[in-house]
Write a structure and sequence with these properties.
Length: 345
């Protein structure tokens, strides 16, 4: 007879457990046919347009609106054009060297706008981490102080140091230690934005929850690398659809940012890693340790930064920032980022 207690039988419980396990496995597995071909990883040339628009609150006396400008590292920026409600001025964030376009409008009437556009030629980065057999004693900490130091938004706790020590045990070179940390973050983290708190690079959150987006993956890697004495730094910008999977993009919108990390290895230099992208495309796990696809535009390396001497320490910078009468705006800035591929000659 069937049970009358309302509790599942042992076999029913087992079947339910197996069903849940299968669903989890399917959710974590790459989608069929979603593998990225090698031809899609190469250099890209795109024409982009980035616009920010802020509607001031009633009674605002002074509004400032700022957006980062693309960096010249690993890419060439051509024909950069700036415009806005008033003519933008350009400032630089120290010590990252990021460039920022900023407009300042007194007694604003209507929205405050800033626009930028240009052509970016982005390279595919290809390095050979194995070319460095250097050990930790070869790292010049004096020349890379900022890339080794903890900060407000990338703290290095005792727990971080303990994990870094455990995971790099038995690895003698900078590269093999970095690979051990890369593998640990890859295994520990799932690309999952369902748990509140993701996207801030909050290290305790990353360690406890083990889920998040690219910010969380790479903040954790940077903290672990620095915690083990390996210089590491942050990169953020906007992603482009993988080339070769569809027809060349025309006026394609971008919904959000993408970030990645780099670590320093003597005899090679800065070596890129993109763990969150590897997590989404496991077939490229080895590729994204030391190589970087060209489908991105780098805008900023600033972390725990202060903008234009206002004294406010902020996390990272890719979306527009607005200030009203010297204070960060309480409402978000509207923005759009669109690009079109420049046909290959």
């Amino acid at each position: 007879m069937p049970p009358t207690t309302g509790h599942p039988t042992r076999h029913a419980r087992l079947a339910r457990t197996l069903s849940v396990a299968l669903l989890v496995a399917l959710a974590e597995a790459p989608a069929g046919g979603d593998e990225i071909p090698r031809s899609a990883l190469g250099a890209r040339t795109v024409r982009y347009a980035y616009e920010a628009r802020f509607t001031p609150p009633e009674g605002a006396r002074v509004v400032e609106l700022a957006v980062p400008l693309p960096r010249a590292d690993d890419q060439t920026v051509r024909g950069l054009e700036l415009s806005g409600t008033v003519e933008p001025r350009t400032v630089t964030i120290a010590p990252s060297g990021d460039r920022v376009a900023l407009v300042r409008v007194e007694a604003p009437v209507g929205p405050v706008v800033i626009r930028q556009s240009g052509t970016v030629v982005r390279r595919e980065l290809v390095t050979d981490p194995r070319a460095s057999a250097k050990t930790m004693k070869d790292v010049d900490g004096r020349a890379l102080t900022a890339e080794l130091a903890p900060s407000r938004f990338v703290p290095i706790s005792d727990e971080v140091r303990a994990i870094a020590t455990r995971e790099t045990a038995g690895h003698d070179t900078v590269v093999t230690r970095a690979r051990a940390l890369y593998d640990w973050v890859y295994d520990h983290m799932q690309y999952d934005k369902s748990v509140p708190g993701w996207g801030l690079g909050d290290i305790p959150y990353c360690l406890k929850i083990g889920r998040g987006n690219c910010t969380d993956f790479h903040s954790l890697f940077i903290a672990l690398a620095r915690g083990s004495g390996i210089p590491a730094r942050w990169n953020i910008g906007f992603p482009l659809a993988y080339d070769g999977r569809t027809a060349p993009a025309t006026d394609a919108p971008v919904a959000g940012y993408h970030c990645w990390a780099e670590f320093w290895a003597p005899a090679v230099g800065w070596i890129p890693v993109d763990i969150s992208e590897a997590r989404k495309h496991p077939e490229l796990k080895d590729y994204f340790f030391g190589n970087l696809s060209g489908n991105r535009i780098l805008f900023s390396r600033a972390r725990s930064f202060v903008l234009d001497g206002d004294g406010v320490e902020r996390n990272y910078f890719v979306y527009p920032l607005a200030r009203v009468d010297g204070r960060d705006a309480a409402t978000a800035v509207e923005w759009t980022f669109r690009y079109s591929d420049v046909p290959k000659l």
